[in-house]
Design brief:
By secondary structure, the protein is an alpha/beta fold. It has two domains: about 160 residues, HAD superfamily/HAD-like (Rossmann fold), CATH 3.40.50; about 100 residues, Hypothetical Protein, Haloacid Dehalogenase-like Hydrolase, Chain: A, domain 2, CATH 3.30.1240. About 35% of the residues lie in helices and about 25% in strands. The strands form two sheets. The protein has an eight-stranded mixed sheet with strand order 5-4-3-2-1-12-13-14, with helices on both faces. Strands 8-7-6-9-11-10 form a six-stranded mixed sheet, with helices on both faces. The longest helix is centred in the middle third of the chain and has 14 residues. The N and C termini lie close together (about 10 Å).
Length: about 270
């Protein structure tokens, strides 16, 4: 099988523990694009938190793509235009805010290039802002403040509680939102019908590729859908156990250039 697209999660997959792309990985990905293979970044990160990574990999030069907000937004880096996006219905924002308060969870969303916090800023929210190099600020009356379209909301909790919180929210918002964890302490609240697999499928169709031609690599719970969807689903050695169990292939860790191993083995 000749693969035509490589889809990469960022944190824990493309970047190492220092949140850096090694020179070896960067060179391999640029060479892959020069050979005509599509390289796509698919991340739970907001768009501003992905742009620097896309620039480092020269995605604009090769007219490749970003799938941000777990695929709720697809951007052609060459034109810098969104070719698809889906947002949370504004009428659900008060219910989401109330659910965060009732369950003692942190809650954030995004406004332009900023992270907005509905609740007191905890260590997990601060981490999200730091990783994405975005400022974070607390807003009062989040349910009334958010009158504009948002691609996702994010609740935070300790890993043990987040697992329980995910179940509570799935039951409460069944049929209205897609809910899953990305990191053990992040619970993603997404527009209904949005996950990485559906976004990759949407993009692939527009490019004339089928799923058998696609390799998807990831390490987090929110990567499972695309790993199962892909012709070749790859988990990093450092991935959550549930992720490794769903993969066709387990590559080296993100600190051992696991993406390079994938390229050398399958491309």
């Amino acid at each position: 099988m000749k693969y035509g697209m490589l889809v990469l999660d960022i944190d824990g997959t493309l970047t190492n523990s220092k949140k850096e792309i090694t020179k070896k990985t960067k060179d391999a990905l640029i060479d892959l694009q020069e050979r005509g293979v599509r390289v796509v970044l698919a991340s739970g990160r907001p768009t501003p938190g992905i742009r620097a990574v896309a620039e480092e990999l020269s995605l604009a030069h090769f007219s490749n793509f970003i799938l941000s907000f777990n695929g709720a937004k697809i951007i052609n880096c060459g034109s810098d235009q969104a070719i698809y996006q889906k947002t949370i219905p504004v009428n659900l924002i008060p219910q989401i805010y109330q659910a965060a308060l009732e369950n003692s969870a942190g809650l954030i969303s995004y406004e332009g290039d900023s992270v907005i916090a509905a609740t007191d800023i905890d260590e997990y929210m601060a981490l999200e802002a730091r990783v994405n190099r975005m400022p974070i600020h607390r807003v009062e009356n989040f349910d009334k403040y958010v009158t504009f379209p948002v691609n996702k909301c994010l609740m935070t909790a300790t890993p043990k509680y987040a697992e329980e919180l995910e179940k509570i929210l799935k039951k409460q918002f069944y049929g209205q939102l897609d809910i899953y964890r990305s990191e053990p302490y992040f619970v993603e609240l997404m527009p209904n019908g949005v996950d990485k697999a559906q976004s990759v499928n949407r993009l692939a169709g527009s490019l004339g590729l089928n799923r058998e031609q696609i390799v998807c690599c990831g390490d987090g719970f929110n990567d499972i859908s695309m790993i199962e969807y892909a012709g070749l689903g790859v988990a990093m050695e450092n991935a959550q156990e549930k992720v490794r169990e769903r993969a066709d292939y387990v590559t080296a860790s993100n600190d051992a250039d696991g993406i390079v191993q994938v390229i050398e083995t399958f491309f």
